[in-house]
């Protein structure tokens, strides 16, 4: 956790992670915006054609025996996220400096929302258990439909499925993956 040394609170760390996300997004050619204040359900806006994608930024440094546990729930006392509030989750694995760009429909669609997931940004012994690896560094998923995103995919630069369709559900991420919803993990979420 050497990249987190020096933060006094999880809020301070969360602000740093948001800056890291915005810098990486700009480096990948996106224009970004930040909503004023802390009352929005999303942290960063990403211009994608004529749309602004609403991105909720999360981070983890919590290593378990299966990988890194990342929680996708709002702060205590807040209502759960909805597909009307968030388009993407950006999960940052701090010790590995790796981003996962996960369409919100993957986590929020269906009957039960996923509140946490284990991700493993290294070569796993059982890769079939880590279906969300398709979202690792998946910046092209945020390109506009019909424009840049289609060209990237046609050029063979990505083998990812694109489940981001309003209201569509993809369970591909949760096959046999070791997820641990609602299990508190010290240092794995944005609140103490």
Description:
- The chain is of the alpha+beta class.
- It has one domain (2-174): Trna Endonuclease, Chain: A, domain 1 (3-Layer(aba) Sandwich).
- Helices cover 16% and strands 19% of the residues.
- It has a five-stranded mixed β-sheet with strand order 1-2-3-5-6. Strands 4-7 form a two-stranded antiparallel sheet.
- A hairpin with a 2-residue loop joins strand 2 and strand 3 (51-60).
- The longest helix has 18 residues, at 10-27.
Offer a few descriptive terms.
192 residues, Trna Endonuclease, Chain: A, domain 1, single chain, 7 strands, globular, alpha+beta, two-stranded antiparallel ribbon, 3 helices, five-stranded mixed beta sheet
- Give the low-pLDDT segments: 152-192
Question: Which value, in Å, is the CA radius of gyration?
Answer: 16 Å
What overall geometry do the principal axes of the alpha carbons give? globular
The counted number of beta strands is 7
CA distance, first residue to last residue: 16 Å
User: CATH fold name, please?
Assistant: Trna Endonuclease, Chain: A, domain 1
Q: How many independent structural domains?
A: 1
How are the strands ordered across the major sheet? Answer: 1-2-3-5-6
The helix content, as a percent range, equals 10-25%
**Number of helices, counting only DSSP H or I runs of 4 residues or more:** 3
Structural class of the helix and strand makeup?
Answer: alpha+beta
| Biggest β-sheet description | 5 strands, mixed
Strand content: 15-25%
Mean pLDDT: 77
CATH class: Alpha Beta
SSE order, one letter for each helix or strand: HEEEEEEHEH
**What is the second-level CATH architecture?**
3-Layer(aba) Sandwich
């Amino acid at each position: 956790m050497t990249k987190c040394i020096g933060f006094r609170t999880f809020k301070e760390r969360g602000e740093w992670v948001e800056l890291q996300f915005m810098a990486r997004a700009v480096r990948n050619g996106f224009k970004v915006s930040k909503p004023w204040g802390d009352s929005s359900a999303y942290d960063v806006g990403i211009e994608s054609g004529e749309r602004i994608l609403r991105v909720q930024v999360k981070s983890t440094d919590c290593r378990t025996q299966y990988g890194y546990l990342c929680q996708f729930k709002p702060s205590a006392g807040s209502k759960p996220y909805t597909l009307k509030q968030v388009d993407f989750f950006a999960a940052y694995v701090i010790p590995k400096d790796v981003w996962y760009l996960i369409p919100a429909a993957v986590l929020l669609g269906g009957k039960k929302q996923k509140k946490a997931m284990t991700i493993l940004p290294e070569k796993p012994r059982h890769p079939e258990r880590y279906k969300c690896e398709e979202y690792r560094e998946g910046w092209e998923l945020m390109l506009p439909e019909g424009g840049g995103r289609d060209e990237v995919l046609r050029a063979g630069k990505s083998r990812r499925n694109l489940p981001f369709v309003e209201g569509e559900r993809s369970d591909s991420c949760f096959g046999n993956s070791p997820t641990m919803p609602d299990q508190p993990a010290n240092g794995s979420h944005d609140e103490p």
